[in-house]
Design brief:
Elements (H helix, E strand, L loop, with lengths): L12 H16 L7 H7 L1 H13 L2 H7 L2 E2 H8 L3 H13 L3 E4 L2 E4 L1 H6 L9 H15 L2 H7 L12 H5 L3 H25 L7 E5 L5 H9 L4 E6 L4 H10 L6 E5 L12 E5 L7 H14 L5 E6 L10 H13 L8 H11 L3 E6 L5 E6 L1
Parallel strand pairs: 4-5, 4-7, 5-6, 7-8
Antiparallel strand pairs: 1-3, 2-3, 8-10, 9-10
Helix pairs in contact: 3-8, 8-11, 11-12
Length: about 375
């Protein structure tokens, strides 16, 4: 960028004053457009990748053990001297680290959520972002032009089919899903009127974050989780670690091939958006069939606002479904209420949880 140099003018003072006034009007007017937001958004992946690399390098887990000066931290996590200072100071500028007298430490948020030693760790979700999604999103333009996924499916692979055959990787993945669901699960445990019901089952439960949160906060409830058979040992271990094995059990099955287990309340969290419309409607109909009269289905997703203007994260998740799946997409609360009512639910409503997450509830 260049800076205009102003020297003596050959025009009279009145012309100079008018020109200065015009410049000031353009430069400082309240409605003057600026490219700053466009540039920040266009280069947003820079900041994102700095955070993702920090998680991958265990920066936050190491600093949770003790604050460290530059050289010691760089040595601990394997940073080259050329980049270490800029990288760590970028994390400071982004609000992910503190630096005081040359010593780096975590912020309260990164210490709680990005230390692998803590049960509140959500870095598994970010690990997936850096090891898988980052490269797939590089082909978003192709996905938008073709309507085809850009994940392993593109080359004939099947990430999830392979994952479920590898117990250790499956455990890591399911724990990552818990990190994504923990906040909304806590909100569901608090906000839904559980006092009206006695039993519940989470459909597609992963390791059991939602059942544990709901049961821990509602002592009268019993229930469990339904998922593919390989998930069972991971679920049982997670539930036992919370001391809830006497109230929560695992139900093995395939929700497309098998009937859903019956309970007063069924929950589908981050499930429906994976599938095309016919598959969505089929799962809702299965839930309706499994519920007693008066029972409830809770659909939990990053529900898009009805006007499709506010929940940017929900819209981005829907684009991620384009990247990841053959037919999945996210949806508005009005969309989901319509599907529930078409299945026979007589009362439906939408309730916000936390951040971009909401629930849509149907009462049979």
């Amino acid at each position: 960028m260049t800076q205009t140099q102003h020297g003596p003018s050959s025009t009279d003072g009145g012309d100079d004053a008018a020109a200065d006034a015009a410049r000031n009007s353009v430069d400082s007017g309240p409605t003057a457009p600026s490219p700053e937001r466009i540039i920040d958004l266009g280069y947003g992946f820079w900041a994102s990748k700095v955070l993702l690399s920090a998680v991958e390098l265990d920066v936050f887990s190491e600093l949770a053990k003790e604050p460290l000066p530059l050289d010691a931290l760089a040595d601990r996590v394997g940073l080259h001297p050329r980049s270490s200072r800029d990288f760590l100071d970028a994390l400071v500028a982004l609000g992910m680290l503190h630096r005081e007298d040359g010593v780096y430490s975590n912020t309260p948020e990164t210490d709680l959520f990005l230390d692998k030693a803590k049960p509140s760790y959500i870095g598994g979700v970010l690990d997936l972002a850096t090891t898988r999604l980052y490269r797939f999103w590089g082909s978003l333009t192709e996905a938008l032009q073709t309507g085809r996924p850009q994940s392993e499916i593109k080359d004939g692979g099947n990430f999830f089919g392979t994952l479920y055959q590898q117990p250790e990787r499956l455990k890591q993945f399911l724990h990552a899903m818990s990190g994504l669901s923990l906040g909304p699960a806590m909100a569901i445990a608090e906000k839904f009127p559980w006092d009206r019901y006695r039993t519940f089952i989470d459909i597609g439960c992963a390791e059991g974050a939602l059942p544990v949160q709901v049961a821990a906060r509602n002592q009268h409830l019993t229930g469990g989780g339904f998922d593919l058979p390989p998930v069972g040992p991971v679920f049982d271990s997670y539930v036992s670690s919370a001391g809830l094995q006497n109230r929560l059990q695992f139900y093995a099955g395939d929700f497309f091939a098998d009937p859903l287990p019956s309970a007063d309340v069924l929950v589908m969290g981050h499930i429906l958006h994976d599938w095309n419309l016919d598959e969505k409607l089929g799962l809702i109909q299965k839930a309706y069939a499994a519920l007693p009269t008066g029972g409830a289905l809770i659909v939990h997703d990053t529900i898009i606002d009805d006007d499709r203007r506010e929940n940017a994260f929900g819209l981005l998740i829907s684009l991620n479904m384009l990247i990841e799946t053959d037919g999945g997409f996210d949806y508005t609360g009005a969309d989901c209420r319509g599907w529930l009512e078409a299945a026979g639910f007589t009362e439906t409503y939408v309730e916000h949880l936390v951040g971009p997450d909401s629930i849509v509830v149907g009462i049979k």
